[in-house]
Design brief:
Distance between the termini: 48 Å
Mean pLDDT: 85
Number of domains: 1
Helix content: 40-55%
Strand content: 15-25%
Number of strands: 6
Largest sheet: 6 strands, antiparallel
Oligomer: single chain
Radius of gyration: 19 Å
Order of helices and strands: HEEEEHEEHHHH
Strand order of the largest sheet: 4-3-2-1-5-6
């Protein structure tokens, strides 16, 4: 049965391994990336907290270019996991559109609906830009742009937590990888991955990883082909509309 990663009531991926073999090997390349990331100044922040959920805390921060990190905690585990993120241009544009529609820094709206749903967890949005800072928290909202914005951050959370779990599995528990790949299939069908073409290079890399069972690699290839077909269809439709 699919395990759920709840980010404000939505669902996703599997159980964390009991072993603490999840740290990635430190290389000159990763050290260089870490140094570059340290020099970046995050502008946009998203938080989610609900202690009872499988993923009990999620924090996403990124700069204007979509470079940043995601930190998350899992229920009953005392460890916080931190993963670098690099958002696609399409995702960054969409996020900025919602932030701008809100006029977030200048707004005084708290976004909390009159209806309270604390059982779904608490979400937070924050922006730091040009010396100004603003932060809000809510558990439910009627504001369409806030809902669209937080939904997009949930999709980012789904993608990067899924990647993290698959990376751990293929290094330490490769027999778990078919189950985790199935979870990506479900996420894609539900539209819960931000900008699916963005993950095609990662899927192509995975398809050649012989540490994973063949069934997992074949499933990954099918998902990559499906995403590729949709991209080609959208390109053709765009050409037709422009003519």
């Amino acid at each position: 049965m699919l395990c759920l990663i709840c980010l404000s009531g939505l669902a996703v991926t599997g159980q964390a391994p009991a072993q603490k073999k999840n740290s990635r090997p430190v290389t000159k390349a990763t050290e260089k990336k870490a140094a570059v990331r340290t020099a970046l100044t995050p502008v946009y922040f998203y938080n989610f907290t609900k202690p009872e959920f499988l993923v009990s805390k999620v924090h996403i921060e990124h700069d204007e270019a979509g470079i940043g990190l995601i930190r998350f905690e899992k229920k009953k585990l005392e460890e916080e996991f931190t993963v670098p993120i690099e958002l696609s241009e399409a995702t960054v544009e969409l996020l900025k559109e919602h932030w701008e529609n809100l006029g977030f820094l200048e707004s005084k709206e708290n976004y909390q609906s009159k209806l309270e749903y604390p059982h779904l967890g608490t979400m937070g949005l924050m922006m730091e830009k040009d010396g100004a800072e603003r932060k809000v928290e809510f558990n439910w909202t009627d504001n369409k742009d806030v809902k669209a914005l937080t939904d997009e951050y949930k999709k980012i959370g789904y993608e990067y937590v899924w990647k993290f779990e698959l990376d751990v599995a293929r290094r330490n528990q490769p027999l778990e990888s078919p189950r985790i790949v199935k979870e990506l299939d479900i996420l894609l069908k539900r539209g819960q991955i931000s900008d699916p073409p963005h993950i095609l290079p990662y899927l192509n890399e995975l398809s050649g990883d012989e540490r994973m069972p063949l069934i997992a690699r074949n499933h990954i290839l099918r998902l990559a082909k499906s995403i590729g077909k949709k991209v080609k269809k959208e390109e053709k439709d765009g050409e037709k509309n422009s003519n």
